[in-house]
Amino acid sequence: MSGYESYDYLDGDLHLPRDPLTPEFNRVPPYDGGHTPAVVERAERLLAATITISLHDHPVRFPADMANTPAYNRTGRQFTAFEGLRASGLTVVFDNMMDGTATVTGNTPWQWEDVVTDLGMRQADIAHQSDVVVIRTLADIHAAYAAGRTGLVFGLEAATPIGNDLDRLDILYGLGIRQIGLAYSQSNGLGAGLSERTDFGLTDFGRAAVRRMNQLGLAIDVSHSSDRTGIDAADASDVPVFITHAGARALWDIPRLKSDDVLRAVAAGGGVIGMSAAPHTTISRDHPTHSLLSVMDHFEYCAELLGIDHVAFGPDTLYGDHVGLHTTFSFMLGAAAATTEDHPRVEYVDGLENPTESFHNIAAWLVEHGYSDDEIGKVLGGNVLRVLGEVWAG
User: Fold this and answer.
1) What does the alpha-carbon distance between residue 100 and residue 111 come to, in Å, rounded to a whole number?
2) 81 within a domain of the structure (yes/no)
3) Strand pairing partners for 202?
């Protein structure tokens, strides 16, 4: 249903005060990678021939003025970027909604009612159009690819909303969630978050949650968990775990990125790390101005450290001013900026500004740098698909 905008099915009955939303195209100038037509042609051919998976993005539109985000979220209705997704080249996007840094209440994150509201609203909207579908099984992924559609895998960045009730994991699974992070920056009953002063790792309740997630077929993410929690989770899980969106702390020393020990632990269990592009995180000393080039430094480091079978991409992009979002929700994100190294501030991450452009530019970079078709297929989606075959098999 080309041209559909979120909640059009309400036929004008939706009377919500709504500030202008960010457009899905051309918010910033297009990235110039300097590629030849032959490189671009091969990159686009590989995108079309591959089940391409983003391990972490937020494919929704935000207010043009990010300061209006809390009010926007209080409406309970995130606007999916349907046109942008159609142009993205993506088969699947792991969509963690916005119940942490941009909770529906705009105040206290990780409330159970907000998660259920967000999940229900988004799926009601998606059900009224035909180009974007909800993914719950491997068969759904293959069907979406065959039909030329984009699928969303709904997830949460932290399991905090379950409190101390394991059965809430079952409820979330029944409502369509297929991936959950153990903890966000703040700790919870499952384990330590990355901003915890004392890294106590995975709790006994966290171990029980890992077991239940394995039984249900919920993919486990340790992107925002502490080092010890990530290592403990990889050891406790019967199936591979993900770092859906991060990078290597060896290249840029901030808590938001992962130590080699964590990276190795996840890879040793068969897991995959997705390279993030959240502003001012995956920087490198070779490319301190955050851009696609900085992110690909993290990709190459992790591929060499872990092997090509354990790397992928989770750019963590959205449709709007991501730097402005971090400013609006700085109370949630302070740990990410803790570094003693100077680097230029950017208005956006050039080449990885939103889900529409990211994988086109990633694929062209991989072609330009001599990766084989097989290697490109693995990192664009094959590695994630392999892990999902183990996680969702039950």
Assistant:
1) 9
2) yes
3) 191
